[in-house]
Amino acid sequence: MFKKILIANRGEIACRVMRTAKRLGIATVAVYSEADEDALHVQEADEAVPIGPAPSAQSYLVAKKILGAIKKTGADAVHPGYGFLSENAAFAEALAEAGVAFIGPGTKAIAAMGDKIESKKIAAAAGVNTVPGHIGIIDDDDEAVRIARDIGYPVMIKASAGGGGKGMRIARGDDEVRDGFRSAKSEAKSSFADDRVFIEKFIEEPRHIEIQILADAHGNVIHLGERECSIQRRHQKVIEEAPSPFVDAKMRAAMGRQAVKLAKAVDYKSAGTVEFIVDAKKNFYFLEMNTRLQVEHPVTEMVTGLDLVEEMIRVAAGEKLRLKQKDVSLKGWAIEARIYAEDPARNFLPSIGRLSRYRAPVEDKHVRVDSGVAEGSEISMFYDPMIAKLVTYGRSRPEAIRRMGAAMDAFYVRGVDHNIAFLAAVMAHPRFRKGKLTTDFIDEEFPDGFKGGDFSAVDIQEMAAVAAFLQRRQSEREAGTSGQMRDGARVPRGDWTVRIAGKEMEAQVAPIAGGYDIRVGRKTFAVTSDWLPGAPLFDGKIDGRAVIVQVRRLTLGYRLFHGGVETDVQVLSPRAAAMLALMPEKAPPDMSQFLLSPMPGLLLRVNGVVGQEIKAGEELAVVEAMKMENVLRAERDGVIAAVHAEAGASLVVDQPIIEFE
Known about the structure:
- The structure is a single chain.
- By secondary structure, the protein is an alpha+beta fold.
- The protein folds into six domains: 4-103, Rossmann fold; 104-131 and 207-331, ATP-grasp fold, B domain (D-amino Acid Aminotransferase, Chain A, domain 1); 132-201, 2-Layer Sandwich (Dna Ligase, domain 1); 332-444, 2-Layer Sandwich (D-amino Acid Aminotransferase, Chain A, domain 1), CATH 3.30.470.20; 457-478 and 492-580, 2-Layer Sandwich (Glycoprotein, Type 4 Pilin); 594-660, CATH 2.40.50.100.
- A hairpin with a 2-residue loop joins strand 24 and strand 25.
- Helix 4 runs antiparallel to helix 5, helix 7 (141-151) packs across helix 8 and helix 12 packs antiparallel against helix 13 (420-428).
């Protein structure tokens, strides 16, 4: 077994690998860029080595710097995590030459499966179902259009060296092929230093289902069942689960057999994932093979009871697999939600900043949190904006979903925008709960973007009762501090006006054991909790039912988050409510004459000069953020009055780029 493992990665996956290594008694080494000097993975490692500036191209992607850190620390093995150098055959080869074990597959498998064009050829030769398409390099957009017409619309344009949804576009006509071809090539070159793209048939009503495999260096290959990864946004996975609500035992066995055949065809060893696109009739087609650990591997671990990182380490150390296919069984259900620093209300634009408050749900056998941050950590513009992966387990899918809802209520993040409310809305959606999933789910169910959820009438009353509870406790604290509660006197029964979700209702509060009876309208709720002013979570019961509500104090009330819905609640005396109704509302400034940066990022291009006439829909600027290119277009016809930012500028949110007359 290895004595010291260097993790050539950062964030949550680095922390995840360290957790298993430490359990096995193996020392760990972290590497870090200047931006990650105080990162959690650096703090948790036994040793840490700096490897350069913040941009990954100057640090985490530089193999020589990783090799230098290995030499400095004497590490005898490297785990690459995912992303960065995890599927770089040259890096794996350099490690072999240095006599250092690579905790992953051999260079043959990495090279063969890392090129999407070559991987499809190998899959077809191995008897694996493949999607109809053009498996070859495309020179220009005219050729792309000809190929797309031959295949038949719609088509998918993909970067050959791609991954993570980058360099990928759907096209339903000639013009979309031309635009998509150029964008995919540009994005692929920026992300992978390889601008080759190919085109294949786009499967309608598609599901994204993948098979986890394990293989050793002794010819043993098994599969661990499937993961459903159909809930995607911009081709990036958002929610994953194991098993799939669509796959039956016969289909699982067939997909597993093909995944194993492909692994054997490239002499695979280690953990890997074979991804399939599946149509409504349960036909499945090979997409790609990821020769590394997947982001969503925890759901497979939860339903199989295996530690995939441990299995990878043992295989890399030369051990045989400790189980055979007949030993694999899937028990219960697991769901993973990816919590990102992004703003769902602004088309999911990335959010950067420092986590001023961070409190994850309590972990137990049903709740798991994989994270690389802590309170005070910074979400940087240089890397993926993931905050954490939240995983819940249940004996059944509904139980896993229910536990996920409760865990999201308890996940408290402040300092950056995040997508927890959106994830909760997806989990609560009737179509999701029925398991009727496709990769178009988000586009179809949230066609105008996510505007926030709504409380039901019952929820509104319950949240009004919680707000009245909070205000009563706050009043008791203030009364005690001012001396009004001397000699055991109590704050008198409270009468409040509660404004919530556009409604106004009266609330009367009376003490009971552990809390209060709170009458809202005609209904009385028994609300109990040990919540004290300043605590970010109300963890209590309403009529005996456990309820968790996130709490943020406002000037005239509270901001509450529960069940995926965030709302501001005002709790006022009847007199104050009457006075507030007379106050005029201040109108926001008019910024309609400006093109504003919707996100922090790098301004790649500005297309326009002073005096130029522009038309609605015309491309005005391109902003790169979190490794993705975002095109900003004109909303209406106009004339450019001023250009306030030049290409190469680092932008902040709402920074003016162009001003119109």
